[in-house]
Amino acid sequence: MKLSNVTLFFFWCALAAGLLLGGWLVPRAADYLARGTAVLEAEEMMPVEEIFRPVPSSVPFAACLRAEGYIELAAEPLPLSPLRAGLVARVHVEPEQRVGANQVLISLNVEKTEGRQAEAEARLANTQARLKTERLKESELAERYERVRRLVAMEAAAPQELNEFSYQLRLCRARIEEFKTLRRLHQAQLDQAGAEAGQHDLRAPVAGRVWRVAATPGMYLEPVPGQPAVVLAPDSTLAVRVLVREEDAPRLRERARAVAFQPGEGGAMFELAYLRTEPEALLMEAELGPPQRMIQLVYRVIGEDVPLVVGQSVEVYVESRVHSSRVTEPTLPAS
Questions:
Q1: What are the DSSP calls for 242-269, one per residue?
Q2: Closest CA to 315 of 64, 66, 58
Q3: Model confidence at 85, in pLDDT bands (50, 70, 90)?
Q4: Which helix (H) or strand (E) holds 317?
Q5: Fewer Cβ close by (within 10 Å): the C or N end of the chain?
Q6: From the CB of residue 270, how many other CB atoms can be counted at a distance below 10 Å?
Q7: Tell me, what's the pLDDT at 19?
Q8: Going by C-beta distance under 8 Å and a sequence separation of 6 or more, which residues neighbour residue 173?
Q9: Residues whose CB falls within 8 Å of the CB of residue 138, separated by 6 or more in sequence, listed in order
Q10: DSSP-derived secondary structure for 12-39
Q11: Could you count the other beta carbons within 10 Å of the beta carbon of residue 252?
Q12: Are strands 208-213 and 230-234 parallel, antiparallel or unpaired?
């Protein structure tokens, strides 16, 4: 049977499309099978107790999620910069050193401000002297006004004389209010000059531990945002940042309770107090598969005698909605 030209045309088009589609699908199918094989091999190599490990009996929750946490400070480090530019005369601290509130961290050589402070003191003294003079004048005018008022009431003095003393008294009191305003202004200028005179030193605003020192003697420092001379970690309790997979978030309770275990075999359990949930999820690369989105929960470590170090990882059990078994599916950390 002889095929028509139209039939042959559609036949060859279908054959070409099949070859193109097969060339596109075969490599992807092979890659998919290879990935699936890698995942299966990884699960076969992973001990069963790591995949479905029973929750320790000391965990006080009916149901929980196992997650990885990292020790950090509960308070954010403080970047400190001098309020005025100057040359570093001396650095009094070094990293890891503990300091107290108002302790000098860096001494600076800055422009002398004694002249401006003396000028401010002179202006304030002059204003106070003039204010004192006006108050004495007010007292005298008030006495004379009262005396004339009684004479006018007895018709022994003209009302015009009383009006004159009333005008002078109002004028005097207006000048007193003006000098009071000037005194406040000059006092503020003196306070500012005194504060600038005390800015030769960079001091710790709170007690804490020095994390980083970016200044050396002879360096010229300026109060530039984002370029701190010293980074100070305020004294505070430790915190644990817990990473929970986004798909496990619906199982979490609101302000979920949590406990953690110190690293190492047989590590002691310590309690955690909920602080906050970060508003943004953390995207972490996974060894197998696409990146994972992790919910960040921050807890405060209860107790100060727990031997923990900032930066180390701990195993955390976060309370979840109740289910039928004490065995929990682990939240495997992404590497």
A1: EEEEGGGGGGBPTT--EEEE-SSTTPPE
A2: 66
A3: confident
A4: strand 313-319
A5: N
A6: 19
A7: 61
A8: 138
A9: 169, 172, 173, 176
A10: HHHHHHHHHHHHHHHHHHHHHHHHHHHH
A11: 19
A12: antiparallel
| Per-residue pLDDT tens digits for 124-147 | 999 999 999 999 999 998 898 888
List all residues 6 or more positions away from 272 whose beta carbon is below 8 Å from its beta carbon.
240, 257, 258, 259, 260, 299, 300, 301, 302, 316
Spacing of C-alpha 278 from chain mean position: 12
Running DSSP on this structure, what letter comes out for residue 85? Answer: -
Most confident range (mean pLDDT) of 36-45, 103-112, 288-297 is 288-297
Rounded-to-integer distance, Cα 162 and Cα 149, Å: 6
Cβ atoms of 290 and 52 within 8 Å: the answer is no
Q: Map tokens 């900032």 to a residue.
A: 310
CB 323 within 8 A of CB 73: no
In terms of DSSP bridges, do strands 104-109 and 78-80 run parallel, antiparallel, or are they unpaired?
unpaired
Determine the residue type at 112.
K
Structural contact between residues 73 and 235, judged by C-beta atoms closer than 8 angstroms: no
- 262 residue type, one letter: Q
Q: In whole angstroms, how far apart are CA 308 and each of 43, 60, 233, 259, 302?
A: 32, 22, 16, 14, 12
For 92, what's the count of Cα atoms within 13 Å in the CB-facing half-sphere?
14
Backbone angles phi, psi at 293, to 5 degrees: -90, 125
Which tokens sit at 206?
């709170």
Residue found by looking up tokens 């401010």 in the block? 120
As a whole number of angstroms, the distance between CA 184 and CA 134 comes to 16
Name residue, tokens 């100057």.
Answer: 86
User: Residue 123: CB partners within 8 Å, gap ≥ 6?
Assistant: 186, 189
Query: Minimal CA–CA distance to 91: which of 199, 234, 202, 196?
Result: 202
Which residues face 299 on adjacent strands?
240, 274
**With a threshold of 0.85, does the pTM exceed it?**
no
